[in-house]
């Protein structure tokens, strides 16, 4: 390939619309854009998520597949991936996880093009029963076959190596901030929240620890009587703790189901602190979103969160699965306006540097170049 020509990268994903949009804007607005030319394909069984790329420069297409259990899904997945591998590009970047037939097709056809695989999860989260059969078997094959693998936390990289990936081909690249997908960068960070409001945002699966937070709020409200909790999202733990049809507790505000895009900055803006009481994590889009909005977090000290939350700088880390430790951390942030301001400043600074998409684009450029070089060496 000529040194004067941009590296042509075909970015393919199934369900990471905001994440991919952030990545594209990173290349569009940084020096990495002078080296890489992106085109994006969404492969999905549902509605295309490419709508979030409106106004972002680039070339996009959507491939519609039947549902996973439809007999036609395997054949059409293989056909779609074969066309992608035959397309005019120098590197294919695949965001793993979704329809396992698509992951399996990529693992079988990887030898056709230099390939980078981003793995968001190497193993199922405890108690998460939403994962389709065969997902992690397919991901294991992907990391063994890929020219380069990127993950968002070191322990997920260790899991990829344990599954057979070559350590030299695994890179840790941070999960980028997501707030600029909702609010212009010029309007960030959001003003520091003054009301003693705690936000839990996203899927309420068992490993996310919403039950730990609800128990902790009993202690928090004893110490800060006006404290309130906002829960926005969906999941079995939410339904168990707050059954539909029953009155909401006066100290809790519920937003069930999909949160409208316009409501996201409003919910974060009303919150003084974001709670991440997870029992386990591979990374956290919510932590990255909170950082972008300039919201401090109180998070469990577990791998995946401890890698993104800087204790005392962007938030507070507490012992996992401990309502008392979580209550102590939340009370400290809610009762100390100066600490809250300092954490907000630190969170936004991290979002604008380490978690910025321009920084990530530069790191990915090196990964793409390594993938192309590895592929060329294998072919020699």
Task: Explain what this protein looks like in three dimensions.
The protein has helices at residues 17-28, 72-86, 100-109, 135-145, 154-162, 210-223, 236-241, 263-269, 285-293, 323-335, 337-352, 357-379; strands at 7-13, 36-44, 59-64, 91-95, 115-118, 148-151, 170-172, 197-201, 228-233, 252-256, 273-276, 297-300, 315-318. The longest helix is centred in the last third of the chain and has 23 residues, at 357-379. It has 2 domains: 7-176 and 356-379, Glycogen Phosphorylase B (Rossmann fold, 3-Layer(aba) Sandwich); 182-352, 3-Layer(aba) Sandwich (Rossmann fold), CATH 3.40.50. The chain has 12 helices and 13 strands. A 7-stranded parallel β-sheet has the order 3-2-1-4-5-6-7, with helices on both faces. It has a 6-stranded parallel β-sheet with strand order 10-9-8-11-12-13, sandwiched between helices. It is globular, with a radius of gyration of 21 Å. Helices cover 38% and strands 17% of the residues. It is of the alpha/beta class and 380 residues long.
Spell out the key features of this protein.
380 residues; alpha/beta; Rossmann fold; 2 domains; 7-stranded parallel sheet; 6-stranded parallel sheet; 13 strands
How do you describe this structure in short?
This protein has helices at 17-28, 72-86, 100-109, 135-145, 154-162, 210-223, 236-241, 263-269, 285-293, 323-335, 337-352, 357-379; strands at 7-13, 36-44, 59-64, 91-95, 115-118, 148-151, 170-172, 197-201, 228-233, 252-256, 273-276, 297-300, 315-318. The chain has 380 residues and is of the alpha/beta class.
């Amino acid at each position: 390939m000529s040194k004067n020509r941009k590296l042509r990268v075909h970015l393919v994903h199934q369900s990471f619309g905001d994440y991919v949009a952030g990545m594209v804007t990173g290349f569009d607005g940084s020096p990495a854009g002078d080296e890489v030319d992106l085109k994006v394909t969404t492969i999905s069984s549902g509605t295309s998520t490419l709508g979030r790329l409106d106004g972002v420069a680039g070339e996009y297409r959507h491939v519609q597949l039947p549902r996973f259990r439809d007999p036609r899904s395997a054949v059409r997945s293989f056909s779609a991936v074969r066309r992608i591998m035959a397309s005019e590009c120098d590197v294919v970047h695949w965001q793993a996880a979704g329809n396992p037939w698509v992951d399996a097709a990529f693992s079988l056809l990887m030898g056709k093009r230099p390939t980078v695989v981003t793995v968001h999860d190497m193993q199922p989260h405890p108690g998460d029963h939403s994962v389709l059969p065969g997902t992690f078997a397919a991901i294991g094959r992907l990391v063994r076959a890929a020219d380069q693998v990127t993950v968002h936390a070191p322990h997920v990289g260790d899991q990829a190596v344990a599954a057979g990936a070559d350590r030299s081909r695994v890179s840790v690249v941070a999960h980028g901030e997501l707030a600029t997908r909702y609010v212009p960068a010029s309007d960030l960070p959001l003003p520091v929240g003054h009301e003693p409001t705690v936000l839990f945002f996203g899927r309420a699966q068992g490993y996310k620890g919403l039950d730990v937070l609800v128990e902790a709020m009993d202690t928090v409200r004893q110490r800060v009587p006006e404290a309130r909790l906002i829960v926005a999202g969906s999941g079995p733990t939410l339904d168990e703790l707050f059954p539909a049809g029953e009155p909401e507790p006066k100290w809790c505000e519920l937003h069930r189901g999909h949160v409208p895009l316009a409501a996201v900055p409003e919910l974060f803006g009303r919150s003084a602190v974001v709670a991440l009481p997870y029992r386990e994590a591979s990374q956290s889009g919510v932590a990255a979103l909170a950082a972008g909005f300039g919201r401090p977090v109180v998070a469990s000290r577990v791998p995946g969160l401890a890698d993104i939350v800087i204790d005392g700088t962007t938030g507070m880390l507490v012992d996992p699965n401990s309502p008392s430790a979580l209550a102590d951390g939340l009370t400290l942030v809610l009762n100390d306006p100066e600490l809250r301001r300092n954490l907000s400043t630190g969170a936004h600074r991290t979002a604008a540097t380490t978690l910025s998409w321009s920084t990530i684009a530069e790191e990915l450029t090196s990964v793409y170049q390594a993938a192309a070089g590895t592929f060329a060496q294998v072919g020699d």
